[in-house]
Recover the amino acids of this structure.
């Protein structure tokens, strides 16, 4: 069922946009970020009625949608959204997709994450193929301004936040040519795959899904160890840390 849904989406978009890569990527990026909106909506609903508190997951999913937003902004800067019919198709599909994923996530969060893992895997393969086919052309063009701003010059907290398999600051893409831009986008999609896989694990603790939260925990443990060494009294160290 999940594979079928992904297959239909891919088949339709590939058929319509065979020779128009930027409009195709524009449509894909418009639709592909919608599941993150759906996860956020349902998690907000659970928070509102007092059922669950998963603030950490909200932060990570928002960072994922923020990353996909910048993929979309890049495609817009490249002219992918110029034709009204492409915008209409993308937005209509996004609306439909939103409600489908809300339904799946309400019934089975794990299936909804598996669904997105497959979508992100497909996105990785699509960009990888594009990079191989158009390497020479892409290397002759500069990176879009929005790509330089997001990947290199801006505040990179949100960029680090969606990459739950990495520690913050671990990945800093080169951003000179359009080839670099598509390499970064492709590699982002693989980081989304890893995050979606992590979300399906029952043992994933909500405090440690966020890479910043995990780094803070490790840092806290290190601080505690230093205090234990300095005081030579392991039993008293945690109390001093807390005070
Ligand atoms: Fe994307
Ligand atoms: Fe994606």
């Amino acid at each position: 069922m999940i594979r079928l849904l992904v297959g239909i989406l891919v088949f339709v978009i590939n058929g319509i946009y065979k020779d128009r890569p930027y409009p195709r990527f524009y449509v894909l990026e418009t639709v592909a970020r919608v599941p993150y909106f759906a996860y956020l909506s349902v998690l907000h609903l659970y928070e509102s009625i007092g059922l669950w508190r998963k603030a950490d997951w909200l932060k990570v999913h928002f960072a994922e949608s923020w990353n996909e937003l910048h993929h979309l902004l890049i495609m817009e800067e490249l002219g992918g959204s110029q034709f009204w019919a492409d915008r209409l198709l993308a937005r209509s599909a996004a609306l439909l997709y939103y409600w489908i994923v809300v339904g799946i996530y309400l019934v089975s969060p794990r299936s909804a994450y598996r669904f997105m893992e497959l979508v992100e895997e497909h996105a990785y393969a699509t960009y990888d193929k594009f990079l191989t086919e158009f390497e020479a052309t892409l290397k002759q063009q500069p990176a879009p301004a929005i790509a330089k701003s997001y990947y290199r010059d801006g505040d990179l907290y949100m960029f680090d936040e969606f990459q739950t398999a990495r520690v913050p600051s671990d990945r800093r893409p080169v951003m000179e040519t359009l080839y670099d831009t598509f390499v970064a986008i492709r590699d982002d999609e693989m980081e989304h795959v890893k995050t979606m896989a992590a979300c399906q694990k029952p043992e994933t603790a909500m405090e440690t899904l966020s890479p910043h939260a995990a780094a803070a925990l490790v840092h806290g443990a290190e601080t505690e160890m230093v205090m234990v060494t300095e005081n030579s009294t392991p039993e008293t160290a945690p109390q001093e840390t807390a005070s």
The two ends are 53 Å apart (CA to CA). Confidence is low (pLDDT under 50) at residues 225-243.
